[in-house]
Structures are given as C-alpha cells and as structure tokens.
Amino acid sequence: MESYPLEYVLHHVPLMAVLGLAPLPSPSTSDPTADLGVQGSSTGALSTAAMKASSRDAVLAAGKASLLAALMAKNSVSVWDAASGKGVGFFHVVSLDRVSLMPRRISFLRENRSFPPANRLGPTTHSSLSPLNPSSPLFPDGIMSPSWVKRHREQVPSAVVSFYSLWDKSADETIVERRDPLIGSDGVTATEREKDQQLCQEINERRRNVQDRGIKFAVVLLLKGNSMETQHLDERVAFIRRTCSLDTKNSLFVLPLITGAANEVTDFINGLQKHLYENAVAYYREHGKRIKKKKSKLPVMPLRPTTVSNLPLSLTAQHSTAPSSSTSPTAKPLHPIGWSVRYEYKMGVFAEFRQDLDNAERHYEGAYQSLVDMFHSSIGNLFAPGGGGGGNGEVLQPFSSRWNEARTLADCISLKICKLSLYTDAPVAALQQLYKHISNFKSVPEHVAIGSESMSLLVPGVRPLAASVGGGSFEYWSWVAKQFRVFGELVQIATAKIGLKVPYPPPGTLQPATSPTPHAPGVPPLSQIPNITSNGFPAGDSASSLFGAFGTSNPWSVVQHAGFYYYMAACCTEERWHRFKIADKEDDSPIQPIAPAAGSMNSRSPPSVSPLASLSKISSTTPLHQQHLKSSLSAERQIDHGTMIIELLTKAYEQFKAHKSGRMTLFLASDIARMYETSGKQEMALKFFERIGKTYRKENWPAILHSILSSIVRCAEVLGRKATAVESLFELLSERITPQREDREALWDKLLGLLSQAPSPPPSGRGWKVTIDADSVNSILEVGVQFRKPNAFVRSPAGFQVTISATSSQTPVRAFRLSKVRVGFSNPRLDQVWLDAGETAWTEALESGKVVSSANKLVQWIDCSGTRREVDPDNSETTVAAGVASPTSGRRMVHVADADLSLLPGVKKVFEGSIVPLESEDLKIALVSLILETGSGTLWMDYRVGDRREDTSKRRRWLGVQDHKPKFVILDGYGEQSTVRVIRRQPNVSISFYHAPPGFLDEVYNVSLHVANEEDESVHGMVDVEFRSTMTDGSDPTSHLTRDRSTLSDSDKPDIASAGEPTAPISIDLGTIAAKSSATIPLFLRAIRVAGERVMYVSFAYRVLHARASSEDDAPAANLPSHSSETAESSEIPPEMQYPFRKSETLRIAFQRAFEGKFETTFRAGSGDAAAGWGGADVVDTEKNTILPSPGEAGLLSEPLYGISLVRREGWMLGVSVRSMGPWDVEVKGVDLNIGSELPKGVSLSVKRVFANPEPSEGVAVWKSGQNVHFMYSLNLVCDVQAATNAISAGSMWLIWRRKSESNTDSSSWVRSFIKLPQLDLTNKGVWAFAKLPGEPEVGKLFTLRFTVQNATLGLVELAASVEPSDGFVFAGYKQSGFRLLPLSSHTLTFNCLPLIAGRCPLPRLKIVKKIPGGTAATPQSQDGKGGDEEFVPIYAKGGCGKDGEMLVFVKPNVQF
Questions:
Q1: Would you say 767 and 936 are in contact if contact means Cβ atoms under 8 Å apart?
Q2: How far apart are CA 1290 and CA 47, in angstroms?
Q3: So what's the pLDDT on residue 882?
Q4: N or C: which end of the chain has fewer CB within 10 A?
C-alpha cells in the first residue's frame, strides 16, 4: 500500500487541534485565508521545553507535557483499530501554537457582510485546490489531489481544544492583593478578576476565529496546586464561562494538575474526546451536505466531446480567459462527470471521517463507477465484445498526466472499497471488487500488448487474467501484481487485526442455488453478489454451486489467506519481467506502417483482428504513447525483478507455512529457487534445490524430482561444482526419473564427460573423486548382501554373497564395467576388494567353474572366495567402515580377488565370498562401494547396507550351484542378513577340586584345584579365586584364602582376625598347560568365628595357543600369542584378547565348630583347696593387721586384730563338658582355661582344675567323633567390697588340636580354638550365711555344725534364727535366737549334731530371717525369702543345697553296731 499516496489509502478519523500545549511558540498568521501550519510535537522538544521552564512552572510544564503525550499517543494506533472502536470515537490530534488562526471558508469570506467590500471575495474566487483556480495544481481538468485529503487529515480540525492556566497569586508574589468593593464579598480579589478578564478576552478572540470556520471550540482550565485550595474557585470558573459564552457540558472543562496522576489524565482525555466526538461528526456531516448540494447542481450531460460553451456558467466563468493546457491547444475544463467523481469522493471521505462506513463505501463506489465511465468514454467502447466506436479523448487524454492521476485515484478508491468491505464483514464483496477493478482496467491502452508481446503466457497460472488482453504489456502485469499484493496486505492485516477467518466462505457452508436449505448464518448467498460480466471469473449464481456441501471451491471465488494473493502477485511480476524483456529487445526496432483500412479506429476491422489489437497498433503510433513507452522502459530497467519476485514468493511462503500448507510451501520454495537461478544467483538456488529435493525424493515424486535435479545440474555447471552435477546426473539416469531412453543416453554421455574432465584447480594425488550415497537417491543399481548363517566360529570360514542388479530391464542404459567393488566390514581388517579381471580372465573363470550363468544369462554366480592379502589398491590414508574413519599407519592390507565386473542391462550378478574372523564379535557388512574410474575422475557409489531397516516382505535366499547351474535356495528368515555373530568354540577344559568336607572353624582347610586340558593344543591361562561366605557380597573378614599355609597355621595367635585384614581374591598365572595334561594348585582356606557355608569361586581365563601361521592372514595384526613369546605378548595384548575364553566353577564347603561346650556354675561362697579340705587355721596378715581366713573357711571378712577388713572373697565350682562335633577324629594337644586380662579394677580371679574325665594323658590325646570330655574347675575371687562390678567373664577354654591324619607330621598343622565361658554374677548379696558341713559323719558320733552369717552391707542388721528338727539327727543348741550384726562383720552359729540314721539324710534346717526396720520378727509367711516385714537370709554350702534350701549329707553306718 506504500506505493500509493498515503492520504488516499489510510483510514480517516476526526482531526482535533490542541492549543496551549506546544512547548515553543511560533509566529502568528494574520491572513485569514492562509493555510494552517501544524506544529511538530516530538518528545525531545517537549523534554527540552520542560527543562527550560522556571522552577515555579515546573509542575505546570510537566502536566502539559503529559497531557500532550497522552493526547497524541493514539496517533500511532493502527488504522484497523478504527473499526473495533466504532461508536467510541477517537481523534487524530495535532498540536498548534496558541496564536495560530483557523483559515476561514471561501464561502464565508464571499458571503459575510461584516467584512468591508474591499476584503470580500468575489463570486469567482475558489479554493487553492479547486480545478477552477488558475493557481491550483488541478487547473483546469484535474479531478482530485492528495493535498486536499491531507488538509482535512492534518490541517483543518473538526474540534479545537485550547488549554489555559488559571492564574493564582503564587505566580507573582510581588503583587499586593487588594479587594475591590464593587466586585462583592465573594472573596475574589481585584487582581484575580483582572487576570480572569484578560483570559476571557483571549478565549473570546480564539472562539470567534474557530467558530467562524464552523469548528467546535472547547476550553480546558489547568489548575495548579494553589489554585485548587482557593475557596472562590467556582466563582472564578463561573465568571469565565458566562463571559465567554461557553457551554458547561461540552465547552468548558477543568483539570487539576496532580503529579503522578497518569490514570486521571487518561480518563480525562477519554471523557473529553467522548464529549467532542458528536460535534466532530456533525462538523463532517455538514461538510457532506455542502458537497451533496454542489453535486445536485451538476448538469446531466452525455459523455461526448465537451467545450467551454456547453458548460454551465458556474463552471465556465473562470475559463473564459484561462491559459491553454500543456497537452492541448485550447482550454479543456473538467467534464461534469469529473466533477461528479470529485464530489462523490469528497462525500465518501467526509463519511469516513465520521465513521459512517456504509455511506462511505457507497460514495466511493459511485466515484469509482464514474471514473470507469470516464475511462470508457476516453478510449471508446472497446470493452464490449466485438469492439466499438471511437473514444472521447477530451474527457481524459490517454498517457497524459491527468490520465495517470485518474488511474491512481481509481486504484486507491478500489482499495478503499476493498478495505471498507473487510471492515463491514463482507470479504466476498472485497474480493469481487478486486476482480472487477482488474476487469475494468485491463484494456486501457498502456495495458494492451504491442507487437510480438502478444504471445503465449510464460506463467500458466495467470491465464484467466490475460484472456482478453492478448497477453498484456509489462505495464499491465506490473499493475495487476500491485493489485494482488495490496489486496494480500489487506487480507493479512484483517486476519491479524479483526480476526478474519479464511478461507471465506468456508467450503460446505453454502448450499447450491436450487436447494431450499437456508444458507449459513452470517454468510450472504453468492446469488446476491452481482456478477462480473467481463472478467471471466465465476461469480453470482454460476458460482454458488461451488460452495455446496459436496461441491468444490474455486479459489478465484473464495477469499483465501494472504499467501495466495502474494503468490499471484509473484506470478504476475514474473510475467511482467518476461514481457519487459521482449519489449526492451524490440525498443530500437522500427515500427511497421499500418494500413489505414486495418488500423483506423473509425473503420471496421477484419474479423481476424481483434479490436484490442487495433487499439494497440494505433495507440503505439501516437507521440504520447511513444514517449510513455520510452519512459516506462527506462524506469523498468532500474527495477530488480528477480529480487521483487523472490520477496513476494517469500511472503507467500510464510503465509502458507503459517496455515500449515506443506505441499504449497515446497512448491513455493522451488519457485524461489527457480527465481534465484533466473536472477543469476545460482549459489542460493542450489541450496534451495538440494533442500527441496530431499523431500520430493523421500515422498517419491519422480516427475517433480526430475525438474529439480535438472536445475541442480544447471546451477552446479555454472558454479563449477562438478561433483554436485555428477551426483544429480547419476540420479537422473534412473528410469523412474527419466523415462525416455534417448534422454538417459544423453545424460550418461554427459556424466562420463564430466568425470573425464579434470577439475580446476587440478586435485592432488591420483584424481578427483565423487562419492554418492546410492541408498538415499534413485539409483540405477541395487545392491543386496546375505550371510548364509547368522552365526560363525572364530577361525572358521563364513560365507556371504553380494548381489548387484539393475533396477529395471532397461538400466543401465549402456553396458559398462566397474573398476572395483569394495566390501567394507565393521572390522576393517576383513575388508575385501574385487578388481575387474577383463574379458580374458572372464573366459578363464567361466571354464574353471568360478563363474556360472543361468540359461537366459540374466543371473550370474561369481566365486570370489579365493582372496589374497595385498596392499589396498586405493592407497587411502583412511578407510571408512560403518561410517567411521579408521586411521592407518604404514601400508594397509586388504583381501583382493579378481572378478568380472561388467554390468549389462537387466542382468543380476551374485558374488560369493568368505571371511575368516579371528576374534569373537558381531560382524557386519557395513558398506558396499561400486567404483567407476574414467579419465581423471572416480565415481564411488556407496551402499550402506549395514544401516538399512529390516525388510520383512522378502524371504532370505542363497544362490547356490547345482549341476553347473545357479539355483536359489530359500533360507530361514526374511530380509537381508548383513550381520553375523562370531563366537569362539569353547575348548574342552575341565576344573575339579579335591578336599575333605566338612571343614572346621579355625583349622587350615586344604583344597587342591585341578585344571585339565583335553584339547590337542596347549592352553595358556590364569585362575582367579575368591573365598567368602554366602551371606556376604563383598569381602568377608571371617574367611581367608592363601597359597602359603604358614600364614594361617600359627597356633600362638589367639585369633586369625587379629593377624591382619581379610584376604582379597587372588590371581594365579598357570602359564602354559600342554595338550592332554593338567595342572594342580594347592589352596589353603580358613574360616573363623561364624559357622556356616563358604563358597570358593574359581574363574579360569585362557586361550588356545595355535601354531604360528605361515600366511599373512595370521600376522601380528591378529594379536595371537605363540609359545616362544608369552611374556612379551602378555604385556602388549589387551586382557580381553589375551584370554578370550573363560570357564567358571563354584565350590561350596560347610564349615562347623570342631567342639561344643556346656557349662554349669555353682556358688560356694568361699574358696578352698580340695587337698586341704574345708578346715584350717586362720592366717594372720601382719602387715595389714587382718586375719585372713584359711582356704577352707568361708567368710567375707575375718575377725580383725585391730579393725575390720574390706576384702570380699567368693568361690564357684565350674563344670565343663566338651563334645567333639565333627565326623573326623581330632588330636588334642592341650586344654587350658584362660581367665583373660580384662578383669575389672580391684578384682582378682584364680582357677584350679579339680578333675577331668577322662584324665588327660601326657602328649597328644585322640578325641573320637562325638566324644564328651568333662572338666571341673574351682574359681576363687577376691575383690573390694565396694566394687561396682555386677558380673565378670570367666574367660575362655582353649584347645590346641588338629584333624587326625597320617600326613600331619608338620608342627605347623596345629591350630587353636576357644570356647567362651559363662559370666560370674558378682551382685552384692547383702546378708548371707555359709554352712561348713562335716566331712564323713557316722551314726552315733557327735559332730559340730557351724553356720557363719556375714553382713556385707554398710548398715546394722537384726537377725532371727530358728532350727527345724530333722528325723535323722538330734542337735544341741538354741532352737530360736536373735542377734545383731555389725556392718562388714560376721557371726557364727554352732550346733552339735548326732546322726541317728545312716544314708543320705537332711541336716536340721536353719532359717535366718532379716528384720525390716519398723516390723516384727514373726514367723515367715512364705518360703520365697520375703515376708510381709522380713526377708530370709540365703544359706550356702559346699556342694550346693537341695530343694527348698535343705542340706544333705551321707551318714556312714557305725560298724561297731
């Protein structure tokens, strides 16, 4: 739209002028008839003015600046927002100086009687832009000028708002306030009234100037902070309103200036514009009525040659003496139809100013139709079928400046109609206006083709536009492209701004015209849209069926998105470029004379010559047309047509991409590439073609791909990129892309020619190389691979076949020979190269049976299994395998074979080869390269068979030979088998163990590991051994493994765990094991502390030592060791290649305890020696002055010599029963009771073995499996009476032993085990008694029974003792007694007893009761040691007590009786 005057195409809104906010004053204009200048209002000027303001006016200046910025903020609002804001109203705001005056109307100056006669304008005075004014640029026959629209858009406002500051005393503090008694007592001072009167005078002058122009005038009073605090403010405002005759509602406004109140300012401006909007609408309505009145006075005159004499007086007054026009010898004023166009257009503009879009569109349509009539009358009625008569050249002279102005106006009016139709939700009407405009102006003289331009169209898509123009000139196609581009911009803006949904109407929303079904709501039926009779486009009833529910849509009759119109503009521009080239070529050619009979416009043309052709021939001979054509060609030469077309295609591409039209985007991209090529920008064209070609190749569009590949070849040849050209030529050789054989033969010759040429600059080395990924393009050959079996063994041949076949019976177009075929594997060492053997070798191979052909010669089997190891013939520094470059050092060796590599049309060749892998891996045929060498160039056709997807549609086949005939054999599976899994055949190696289960804890357990080699070749390997419990995942501190027995058999160590950390897994290098032999490894295990199952994991990693190969196939590249270099190779070969085989075995061993002990402890309250008995005299400690009890005497303390002893003595009897738990006999070297060294402080413990059963013998005792051995120990404890220890450990029983075996002759085989003893209870018993029993009483012999009561507490206790009689004894002593016992002291009770009965008899029972303070010593209520207020004292005796505390002795009979 920028190509047209903006005044014609922009949307019009009411204009508002604001006074008093301009930052800088400008000189006033005294001439009332002068045009009004507009003051610029940039932010920089406002900021500068605000900074220069005085400090007292800072608030006022800032407030004015914010007001002006807020008022002019909407000036930049898009024109499309006017439709959405209809009914609300907003203005375009300009800022003027306060001294600026509004220009008065010409009619006002002519008719106002208040002016002096000398100052009045006469009846012949006209506006400066009127065609009747000699000084006007439109004089004498101009229709409209953009300056008139600009005047009403930017210079003549519909409302004027003047801003004034209300004076207050803070503005001048030097003024002395005085009150005038004539004014009244309302508080207004004389100075304020004087300032208000001056303000009223200024307002009245401005109001009269504005109202004389018929413009609405409003005043805004700006109040500063001090003015708002004045109590008589209302009176001052009322005085100004009355004096200036201002309306309170719409003419006078008051605005307080408050800093930071931006929202209040915005609300005020919105309210101000709402109040003034109706007055602005009324202003433009009055203008419309005035213009309508003028139009009604126009005469109704036919369109014929017009002179001054037959014009009305009002239109000829100024033309009687007018100077002649530059284009005609006599004055030719504007025709009445021109005045009608002018008036209709003005009424449309004023209707648009007041946002009456329906009336505006109606007036624009009237002006447009009048313009069309003017053009028709100027060039004759040639638009009708069959031609017509001559034209009225006096209305509009073709090729004149007025002609061009009228054409521009017609284009802009049509654009306005389209835009307003979109505003009013009538997009179909806008589209119809576009096509109607193209139809109406397609046959103007400058649009008709001339001479050889009348030829077939270059772009087929624009044929409907040029059907009746004979092809059209380059000016015509330039004009049509502009129409489509502008309409596309309109649709794009409407889609983004007002939410237009395209396509419109949607397909299926309209019913056929004959259908009674009502049309879709909101969509007018196309039968109501007037037909366009002369453009050839479907419209009206003829097109309504296209929008049925089951109909198709014609894109010419549906509003598409903007991309469609951008594309049409690009097509028209391309046709414009084509026509311009033809016209430019014929510019200097002489014009052929035209016969009057055939060329005169007044004569009838022959039927074979169209009126348009006659018009073009005649108009081309006129001087104006010759001059116009010269200037048009000169201007056209300055245009970059290619860039313009690419820009339009790019805009269309973006629109189609936004609407997700994938196919169209690809088509547009190809057009962009084509235009780049046409423009000479082959580099960009090549990038586009290559990117587009990938999609069309993937989606299988051979016809389109042929065009793209041909374009790539052309661009590559221009750029000198022979490799790119060869790649495209190779794909063009496919029969699917180029069906014609002749074309493919030419392409083949061209391909060979390019390969034979040396590129520039010449390449270094053997020549230049082109590599094609044949799987990703349409190739002339197909390559398939097949392994016969999915698995193979190391060092065993694995057969494979490579099939090379033509894609059709007609390809390749000519027979040729490949130079080489490379088969690349995932392991580059196995790569094979097959060289062409030539015709002679082919005959020999056929005779030897290495080549077998079918009966029809269409299938050939070629044996390539006999390869030789040679240097790579390609001599590449890197070799590509599986897509990875593998650097090589020195000479690279490959397997080479000779074969017949001739390729014939329709012949399939199957090459059979074999490989011998040397290591286990997943081996893949990654790449098959067909190499064609010719001249200095080499063509590599790479088939990446390893990256192909699995094809499940075809069964696997293998071509075999039977009876000298090839025959396919069906294999298991589908598709290609390009991968083979190479595995190693496991050598026959066995692992066995020799040991004697179960194992005992703490013993050194011997296991012999036996590795046997059953192969015919030697093996070399290493054993990894790990020993741990089944309950652990990592290291086990209770399990130990070693090869050195001495590290585990030290019997002096109490615990193996204290000797160091648990042993880690060990590795043992077995070295070389000869064929049919074995190796034995002794291992020593030890498990401690925890019984349970242990596991020994054995892993034997090994390799077979093959004999050194004589061929280069087994060269050091295979990394295989030999017998003579084991050590050197082991350091160089990676571990995974050193020992490719691994055999694992697991040995589970149950470990149990060798001995199990049971214990029984008896408290005996004292210490004694079995040999000394339980009697004995006390021993005096002379150093401590303390009586030490004899070994046989009980007592916590003894009677002191001079005080009390604090030593506590206790004794236990410990019975131990040890059982041999294992199934094996064990030899016991010694048994000992170890107290340990961790006794509490102040505690000492002594141990003495009383007896053992059986008694230990000197030397080594043999304990049978399951045998029990009993021990009795006496434990004597001495500790401080105040010791805080409750229990102590009695230690451990240690046994030095070994498993009984004849081979146990080494002293290191002894091991030590321990059995932990129970704890001894040292709880302080308080008060207790100890009975000293008689040794061997006899019947009738008196003996003494003593009870020693001891008080181990620190308090005085009161005791009561009572004796119950016994049937076997009589006793003498107190039956009941009471006594007190001092702290830490003892008391002895003595009874004389006489046995009466022999045998085991209970002694008289003594009960000692401890009295509780505050209680009584009554008979105990219970026998559990506690009563209600008393408790029993425990009584101990050597050997223990019976049930309920009774003591039994054995009484011997008296032999005398």
A1: yes
A2: 104
A3: 38
A4: C
Beta strands in 166-206 (DSSP E): none
In Å, how far from its chain's centre is CA 418? 45
* H-assigned helices in 593-681: 596-599, 611-619, 623-636, 641-658, 662-678
Nearest-angstrom CA–CA distance, 1320 and 1274: 13
Q: What is the pTM of this model?
A: 0.64
Looking up tokens 């009484």 gives 1451
In the structure encoding, which two tokens stand for residue 1251, read together?
Answer: 């007896």
**Long-range pairs of 1201-1209 with CB within 8 A, sequence gap ≥ 24:** 1204/1383, 1204/1384, 1204/1385, 1205/1384, 1206/1280, 1206/1281, 1206/1282, 1206/1384, 1207/1278, 1207/1279, 1207/1280, 1207/1281, 1208/1278, 1208/1279, 1208/1280, 1208/1281, 1208/1283, 1208/1352, 1209/1166, 1209/1167, 1209/1276, 1209/1277, 1209/1278
Structure tokens at 380: 């004759």
Per-residue pLDDT at 1061: 55
Query: Is residue 1410 within 8 Å of residue 1357, measured between CB atoms?
Result: yes
Within 1105-1202, strands assigned E span 1141-1152, 1155-1163, 1179-1181, 1186-1188
Rounded to the nearest 10 degrees, how much is the dihedral formed by the CA atoms of 116, 117, 118, 123? 130
Tokens of 1082: 């002794």
Q: Residue 656 has which token pair?
A: 């189609």
Selection from 1146, 1139, 1145 nearest residue 1022 by Cα: 1139
The full DSSP string for 818-863 is -SEEEEEESSGGG-EEEEE-HHHHHHHHHHHTSEEE-TTSSEEEEE
Sort strands 92-96 and 1039-1042 into parallel, antiparallel or unpaired.
unpaired
Tell me the backbone φ, ψ of residue 1146, rounded to 5 degrees. -130, 130
pLDDT at 746: 94
pLDDT at residue 30, as a whole number:
39
Q: Which stretches of the chain drop beneath a pLDDT of 50?
A: 24-53, 85-88, 109, 115, 119-120, 185, 305-329, 381-390, 511-550, 590-619, 877-889, 1051-1060, 1108-1132, 1167-1203, 1416-1427
Distance CA 1203, CA 1385 (A): 10
Of 882, 845, 918, nearest to 1109 by C-alpha is: 918
> Within the chain, how many helices (H) and strands (E) appear?
30, 57
Which residues lie closer than 8 Å to 803 by C-beta, 6 or more apart?
Answer: 782, 783, 784, 785, 786, 908, 909, 910, 911, 959
Q: Are 1135 and 1021 in contact (CB under 8 A)?
A: no
Distance CA 1398, CA 1340 (A): 10
Residue with tokens 């390559």: 783
Angle between helices 641-658 and 562-585 (to 10 degrees): 160
Our CA angle for 1083, 1085, 1086, nearest 5°, is 160
Distance separating alpha carbons of residues 773 and 930, to the nearest angstrom: 11
User: From the CA atom positions of the chain, what is the Rg in Å?
Assistant: 63
Copy the structure tokens of residue 881: 């395998």
The CA–CA distances, whole Å, from 939 to 487, 551, 932, 1095 equal 52, 54, 5, 64
Q: Which amino acid is residue 35, in one-letter code?
A: D
Element housing 742 (H / E): helix 741-756
1042: part of which helix (H) or strand (E)? strand 1039-1042
- Amino acid type, 33: T
Quick one: pLDDT at residue 409?
94
Q: Each residue of 317-361: pLDDT tens digit?
A: 333 333 333 344 455 788 888 899 999 999 999 999 998 999 999
pLDDT confidence of residue 858: 83
Cα-flanking dihedrals φ and ψ of residue 226, to 5°?
A: -70, -35
Between CA 536 and CA 462 the distance in angstroms is: 12
Q: What is the largest CA-CA distance in the chain?
A: 196
Of 1290, 1258, 1256, nearest to 1270 by C-alpha is: 1256
Query: In angstroms, rounded to a whole number, what is the distance separating the alpha carbons of residues 941 and 958?
Result: 24
